[in-house]
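[INFO] parsing input record for Flavodoxin family protein
[DEBUG] input buffer:
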Amino acid sequence: MKVVAFNGSPKKNGNTYEAIKAVAAELEKENIEVEIVHVGNKIIRGCMDCGGCSRNMNERCVMQNDEVNDWIQR
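[DEBUG] output buffer:
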């Protein structure tokens, strides 16, 4: 099993990161892989409800430069 934790704080190594690290340490004790992704400094566009992700059958946003596509695949 793998858990991807998203740190949305603008402070990459702030309190939110420390909390995520604490949770990650407990998960890793149970042999659960953890990846922390810092998104606090990224521009994340909201869903436009265009339905393109459903039509293209791969559940990826039609906005090609949307990093969320990569994050979801993790």
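[INFO] The two ends are 12 Å apart (CA to CA).
[INFO] shutting down worker
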